[in-house]
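SAMPLE LOG
Freezer: B-3
Tube label: C17
Construct: single chain, 146 aa
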Amino acid sequence: MKIGIGNDHAAYEMKLEIKKYLEELGHEVVDFGCHSTDRANYPEFGEKVGRAVAAKEVDCGVLICGTGIGISMAANKVKGVRAAVVSEPVSARLTKEHNDANIIAFGARIVGVELAKAIVDAYLNAEFQGGRHAERVEMLMDIENR
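STRUCTURE (predicted):
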């Protein structure tokens, strides 16, 4: 799978760990930055990953900032993006199964590296269930298109 990853300065070190982990699992990772602990603005990187996901340049995205909130808000401004902030594996699995989320986000100041790996695993191993959930996802997309 080809996965876009993005972060701000608060999540730089965690991004390196998650990127390495994803590559060890055999995924191709496209790193949209940031690339240091120097102050960086999360909206820039949320948008970059969001645009790559929406354009289908990557299969899905992983975003990390201090809390996961701001960077996910930026990504969700991109048409076609369904980014969800998660802090544990159950929500990560369910957001894929029920909401067909194409980006997950979490906070480097909220979860540790091992929990972040478990979140990524739960998300990547889940599949959209369709059925009644497809109707609801379509409703979300209709809101975006109005």
